[in-house]
Amino acid sequence: MNIFRLAGDMSHLFSILLLLLKIHTIKSCAGVSLKTQELYALVFATRYLDIFTGYISLYNTLMKMFFLWSSFTIVWYMRYHNVVRRSYDKDQDTFRHYFLILPCFILALLVHEKFTFLEVLWTFSLYLEAVAILPQLVLLQRTRNVDNLTGHYVFFLGAYRSFYILNWIYRYFTEQNYYKWITWISGLVQTALYADFFYYYVKSWRNSERLQLPA
Amino acid sequence: EVSHEAKDEL
């Protein structure tokens, strides 16, 4: 574990806590894409299967359990909780996220490290996570004024993978033959998708004005 | 450090 990876995990944890705070306390999911939340639940479900087959550390296991629990809880709140679901703007959250799942799965069948059930699912989860934020970014462009909590949620979610990139660079230079092309490229694509959002987020923060993404 | 194989990252 290095400081970059810890910062990344804490940023990821914080982003989810922000979203849970928003949904649980003000019982609102306005501006949040259910499709992105469903994609993330699928990402964690296909990536963290190894909590049943192996043990790496208490930290690793606890974080995986939290990510699994929180992602499915958020999806449940947005689909079935009768107060929260009313604030979900269904007609704006129209990104066809099913069109992301199949290509990622096919790509995982073609490009992977080992052709085993767990490895292909794990690779699928990496590709899917890279694009999972797309429905949320599209929704942010449509909902004119983004509320602060949602903006911060997306920012820390993007920041987590950016820290991971620093972590991979650090590990590349400090560990023998440490390389993970598939993980690295997926992580770079994922972070690149946030570039535009980061620009407008920092700009709104510096001008202390509301976050607005151009349509 | 953990070997290249193990998936020690989240």
UniProtKB/TrEMBL annotation, chain A:
It holds the Pfam family ER_lumen_recept. It is found in: Endoplasmic reticulum membrane. Its main location: endoplasmic reticulum. One of its GO terms (molecular function) is ER retention sequence binding. PROSITE patterns: ER_LUMEN_RECEPTOR_1 (PS00951), ER_LUMEN_RECEPTOR_2 (PS00952). Residues 1-28 form the signal peptide. GO terms for cellular component: endoplasmic reticulum membrane. It is a multi-pass membrane protein. The keyword Ion transport does not apply. One of its GO terms (biological process) is protein retention in ER lumen. The chain crosses the membrane at residues 55-77, 98-115, 121-140, 152-170, 182-202. Keywords: Endoplasmic reticulum, ER-Golgi transport, Membrane, Protein transport, Receptor, Signal, Transmembrane, Transmembrane helix, Transport. Belongs to the ERD2 family. This is ER lumen protein-retaining receptor. It comes from Adiantum capillus-veneris (Maidenhair fern).
